[in-house]
Amino acid sequence: MGCHSPSPRGMVRAGGVRMEVDMKKITVFIPLLIVVVCLSTSSALMAEEKRGAPSEGTETAQEYLQKGNESAQKGLYDEARESFRKAIERNSDLAPVAYFNLGMAYASKGRWLEAAVELERAAKLKPNDVMIHFNLANAYNASGALDNAIKEYQKIIAIDPKLYWAHFNLGNFYSQSSDIDLAISEYETAIELNPKLAVIHFELGNLYEKRGMIDQAIGSYERAISLDPKNHLAHYNLGLTYLKKGDSGKAAKEFQKAIEINPQYAEAYVNLGAVHMYQNQPDQAIPLFLKALQIKPEMTRTLVNVAVAYRDTKDFESALKYAQKAKDLGAKNADTLIKSIHKTRSEK
Asked: Is the dihedral of CA 14, 18, 23, 24 positive or negative?
């Protein structure tokens, strides 16, 4: 699937120093399907050797195909290609299978450019094969050719418009390319075809939120949670959306649920602490920030947050301790915070 790294979506101000609220957003792709297809025994028997029967003692097309598969799985690609070539010479009907198998062998080793070349050959011979286009799209995406990946998914949908996962993955690719409106449209179509997959509602909620469609985002996250109540990220994102709407009470409840589901999810502690800071409750925010730092000690924004909270409770030594740690880790506003702590202490 691919995950996006956390990015700030909103901020609350406390004591003159900005405290950041982080949005954790994930995008989930249907995993790359690694398939090696071999002709069944019955298919082999039905396939006549189109270039004449081999002389006694020579290998058949099916045997060369099997040798090619075995070589490809061992990473012996030159040998595999030669065996597949011989299989195709003896039975041209095997060409799509041979190209596909070789392409998938390259894909299994992360050799995406070579995989794409072989899968392109297979696709030309079998243009209506959804599986070939699916794996070709993934090879394009993995090699950085996102536009080509999108085109392959468009071909899949043209072949079968009712494949919900094709609309979902096309939506993912549109989201990657920042075509948000197109991505939303594909996610909505995927939900019409399969309304019971929580991840689609979740991703749609992320895009609604990005578009500023707050109520729609809340609805999507709630539907994702109804389908997958243990999804801590859905609770977390729902909490941030409530915070963006100005409902800190509901936001706090969702952050707490995220923590209950995943006690090691540091960002939920940070944002629950930020809610308490927004409500002028620094004493309740401090243990939450400290728990987040226990999980992720080098979260500079959290170091700044806990320093602000300590400053606001008049624990200036602890405030300076964490502000200095933030500075040592490169926090941009650490110097300003340190000056603020000294000033507040002098005015005590």
From this structure: negative
